[in-house]
UniProtKB/TrEMBL annotation, chain A:
Any Gene Ontology CC annotation: connexin complex
UniProt record similarity statement: Belongs to the connexin family.
Name of the protein in question: Gap junction protein
Pfam family, one: Connexin
Cited Gene3D superfamilies: Gap junction channel protein cysteine-rich domain
TrEMBL record, chain B:
Source taxonomy: Eukaryota, Metazoa, Chordata, Craniata, Vertebrata
Assigned protein family: Belongs to the connexin family.
Transmembrane intervals: 23-40, 77-97, 132-158, 191-214
Organism name: Burhinus bistriatus
The protein's name: Gap junction protein
Boundaries of every Connexin cysteine-rich domain copy: 146-213
Gene3D superfamilies: Gap junction channel protein cysteine-rich domain
GO biological process annotation, one example: gap junction-mediated intercellular transport
């Protein structure tokens, strides 16, 4: 069980997505998932070992690390990737349900797999709203937990058992900051793509509904 | 999810590339991604653990390491490879869009559509002309830009491509100017020079491909201008033959067998 599962899930959804949805999948795969696995994971690999405090008091380093990093950046990043990809499962389930109904009734219920309409459209819109919501929630969480997206060189810690205010040094702060900004940038890009797709679908189907009603009225 | 997934995505683009594009892709996968994963990552694996400063002052090593390596070589290469591979996606998306349109025409029962079934549309190789030419050329241009930007960033950040053995550091909290020793400097220099050399080869291949596409474009234009009544079928047959040969050479054994049997 690894990131390959997420990749398979998103590839499955790709078939029923709009063009913008496919761009979103490509951005998530390449600029988020691949960057996470190939580069970011290794930066945070020894973060606890390399976190050093200017004191010999046993336990002080542990306590200070835990105070400043309640949840590590990299774990939050992984959670964000999982939560943001999960709403696509709604679409997968709905499509599976449809196909099951088609087999059961032995007839094609819908015109073609490329067209999303009716119930599937609602599910798709809900999944878009959920995706955007999760992205925003995680960005806010990052901001609140770490007081912005900067990673300082030095943090001052005075929690027991540290005997006084102690200097603690974080490892690779500049590299971590660069990748955090990268994460924020790609998240914002994904939010923008989701919003554009949402607007596009709502606009397209409103026009369709309006035209149908108008032709009915004329008739 | 790893570099293998990128290989799958880019492998699909390979079918619609020129011969130089196929060479570029091979160089990318074998001499850059594979070397990165199999060798370079091990060389840089212990970079901070074995970065030693001649002081017992806690925190001095962390601060000095961060000062000299704002972003590690290995991460910069990983980002460079990801960014350089991404423009090929533009071509993949364009091809997918064209296939989608043809499938739609086929389903509507359009008489202009010359395909017998959907499988044929899926397997078809598109020629690099028209709007696909523009997409392909833009993707090569972006690749060149990304390669150049990353090479410059590398040179700028590390003052050249050599990894020194010793660095002098006096960032706070180091009490004075302290000697810090980098782990495996010679091996890192060798790999850095290797990666830069392969980047340069990729830049040259991209420039050659760009020139080839531009030359082909201008030749085609001058042919059209010179021969307005040129018979389209004859030209198509020759180029279709060339396309088929390219397909046979670059596809797997199974496809070759199918080609022979059909």
């Amino acid at each position: 069980m690894s990131w390959g599962f997420l990749r398979d899930l998103l590839s499955g959804v790709n078939k029923y997505s709009t063009g913008i949805g496919r761009i979103w999948v490509a951005v998530v795969f390449i600029f988020r998932l691949l960057v996470y696995v190939a580069a970011a994971e290794n930066i945070w690999k020894y973060e606890h070992d390399e976190f050093e405090c200017n004191i010999k008091q046993p336990g002080c380093e542990n306590v200070c690390f835990d105070h400043f990093f309640p949840v590590s950046h990299i774990r939050l990043w992984a959670l964000q990737l999982i939560m943001v990809s999960t709403p696509s499962l709604l679409v997968v389930f709905h499509v599976a349900y449809r196909e099951n109904q088609e087999k059961h009734h032995n007839q094609k219920l819908y015109k073609s797999p490329g067209e999303i309409d009716g119930g599937l459209l609602c599910t798709y819109l809900i999944s878009l709203i959920l995706k955007t919501g999760f992205e925003i929630v995680f960005l806010v969480l990052f901001y609140k937990l770490y007081n912005g997206f900067k990673v300082p060189h030095l943090v001052k810690c005075d929690i027991r058992p540290c005997p006084n205010t102690v200097d603690c040094y974080i490892s690779k702060p500049t590299e971590k900051m660069i990748f955090l900004y990268f994460l924020v940038g790609t998240s914002c890009l994904c939010i923008v793509l989701n919003l554009i797709e949402l607007s596009y679908l709502i606009f397209k189907y409103s026009i369709k509904c309006y035209l149908e009603r108008y032709t009915k009225k004329c008739q | 999810m790893d570099w293998g997934a990128l290989h799958t995505i880019l492998g699909g683009v390979n079918k619609h590339s020129t011969s130089i594009g196929k060479i570029w892709l091979t160089v990318l996968f074998i001499f850059r991604i594979m070397i990165l994963v199999v060798a370079a990552e091990r060389v840089w694996g212990d970079e901070q653990d074995d970065f030693v400063c001649n002081t017992l002052q806690p925190g001095c090593k962390n601060v000095c390491y961060d000062h000299f390596f704002p972003i590690s070589h290995i991460r910069l290469w990983a980002l460079q490879l990801i960014f350089v591979s991404t423009p090929a996606l533009l071509v993949a998306m364009h091809v997918a869009y064209r296939r989608h349109e043809k499938k739609r025409q086929f389903r509507k029962g359009d008489q202009k559509c010359e395909y017998k079934d959907i499988e044929e549309i899926r397997k078809q190789r598109f020629r690099i002309e028209g709007s696909l030419w523009w997409t392909y050329t833009s993707s090569i241009f972006f690749r060149l830009v990304f390669e150049a930007v990353f090479m410059y960033a590398f040179y700028f950040m590390y003052d050249g491509f050599r990894m020194p053995r010793l660095m002098k550091c006096n960032a706070w909290p180091c009490p004075n100017t302290v000697d810090c020793f980098v782990s495996r400097p010679t091996e890192k220099t060798v790999f850095t020079i290797f990666m830069i050399a392969v980047s340069s080869i990729c830049i040259l291949l991209n420039v050659a491909e760009l020139c080839y596409l531009l030359t082909k474009f201008f030749l085609r234009r001058s042919k059209k201008a010179g021969n307005p009544k040129h018979h389209p079928n004859h030209e198509n047959k020759e180029e279709t033959k060339q396309n088929e040969m390219n397909e046979l050479i670059s596809d797997s054994c199974q496809n070759t067998v199918i080609g022979f049997s059909s």
